[in-house]
Each structure stands twice: as C-alpha cells, then as structure tokens.
Prior knowledge:
Strands 1-2-3-10-5-8 form a six-stranded antiparallel beta sheet. A five-stranded antiparallel beta sheet has the order 7-6-9-4-11, with no helix packed on it. It has helices at 2-21, 24-28, and strands at residues 30-32, 35-42, 48-57, 62-67, 70-78, 80-85, 91-94, 98-101, 107-111, 117-126, 133-134. The chain contains two helices and eleven strands, in the order H-H-E-E-E-E-E-E-E-E-E-E-E.
Amino acid sequence: xxxxxxxxxxxxxxxxxxxxxxxxxxxxxxxxxxxxxxxxxxxxxxxxxxxxxxxxxxxxxxxxxxxxxxxxxxxxxxxxxxxxxxxxxxxxxxxxxxxxxxxxxxxxxxxxxxxxxxxxxxxxxxxxxxxxxxxx
Length: 136
C-alpha cells in the first residue's frame, strides 16, 4: 500500500514539474474570438513587449476600425484579406503577403475570399496598455 502511495506522489510531482517546464508559447495560448495568443515577451527596450497572435477570420467576417499602442507586422497565412489602413488605399493580400502598420494607425480588415483566412500578427507595443482599441 505504501509503495502505491509513493508512486502516486512521485507521479503528481513529475506532472507538476512538467507543467512548469512547458514553453511559454504553449502556456500563453489563449483563444478569444478567433485570436489565439501564441507568445508574449518583454523586450530589451523598457516598457515594451512583443505579442504574437494568430488571427482566424471566417469568410465575410471583418474586424472594425481599431488601433494598437505600437507597431503591427502582419503575415497572411491563408485566404484573402483586405486591409484598410488610415491614409492609404485599401490593399488586398493573400497567403505569403506581409503588411506593416505603424504605431497608433487606425485600420480595419475583412476576409474577402471564399474560405477562412488567417494571419500571424506580431505586435511591438507598450506594456500594460490594451492591445486593441476600437474606434467608434
């Protein structure tokens, strides 16, 4: 009986240690409305962090005008997305295309393709500020 208790205690300790040893990218994954946070790290510049998110946008779906407290670098993984960036003509991007959105620039995106679209969004932003601010 004591041997089984020891084995159980050892298994619990190993499982707990394994959970603490998981990469931060796995532990950080959270999905909210088609947005899955992949990783978040402090940068060498004080008060700044990098956040990387996979954004899945269903056919016909759009994200309204919004801005971020820093730069956004977009890499389209699949599908066809149309971006409207303040002060510029709309641009349509497909898988493999990239887009840079400067700090605080208002923009919107819409899936204009016939299938689900996905992008990898990398943000270099100020810490402790909301990542997304919707424009009314």
